[in-house]
Amino acid sequence: MSDAPLTTQVGGNLYDALAPLAYADEGLQWPLALYVDALGLILEETAQLVRIDDDGNDGWSAFADPQRCPASYLNTLAQWAGVRYPRRMHEADLRALIDGEAPGLWRGTKSALLKMIRRYLAPGGVIYFQERTGGNAYALTIFTFAYSTLNEAAIRRELALQVPAGLLLTYEVRVGQTYGMVHGRVADYKAMKATWATYAAMYKAPPP
Q: For the segment 1-37, what is each residue's pLDDT rounded down to a tens digit?
């Protein structure tokens, strides 16, 4: 006797439950097996999510796990976690964003703000983040450099949504260079003094 042509676990469970009706199924080219398997295709995805998986994870838990959540439900999970993200974000990046420090849980913290800003910077872009600016406990200064800022408007929009009420935020996009760029342009301190008259001039000089 051949095995029934079943492709889903739900179909297999239904077929086993209907075993008394399957006595002639093989001789008739498996009409019952094909029928219950078709029903199983509709329910299989849900069944896989609600049952305990092979690793012992509880049923339904995949919906709350950004690493196991099916791709088709990932946007819903992001919404549950309060995650704001650009639609261009790749699936793996979105999973990493939700996992661990979802903005909905950590909104307004320094780490969440830095992660948000970095999404709109070129790789390696520098973020200047100063709390208590000028000795004011409620003042916050953030700036990025023009050479690495990909979307200033998006950063400003996200900062307006995430920075806690009551903080005096200053965000700027500056034309300038980092100390790493300075070291790459001059050999030593003497050469730096010969190139720029002041630290302000050095700092605000256009990047190489």
A: 688 899 888 888 899 999 999 889 888 999 999 999 9
Predicted TM-score (pTM) above 0.85: no
Quote the CA–CA distance of 171 and 142 in Å, as a whole number. 5
Extract the tokens encoding 111. 């780490």
- List the chain domain ranges: 9-51
- Residue 23, CB-side half-sphere exposure with 13 Å CA sphere: 2
Ramachandran class of 85: left when φ > 0, alpha when ψ lies in -120 to 50, beta otherwise: beta
Six token digits for residue 124: 């390696």
What is d(CA 3, CA 59) in angstroms, rounded to the nearest whole number?
29
Residues 85-103 have pLDDT tens digits of 666 778 888 888 787 655 5
**What phi and psi values does residue 141 have, to the nearest 5 degrees?**
-120, 130
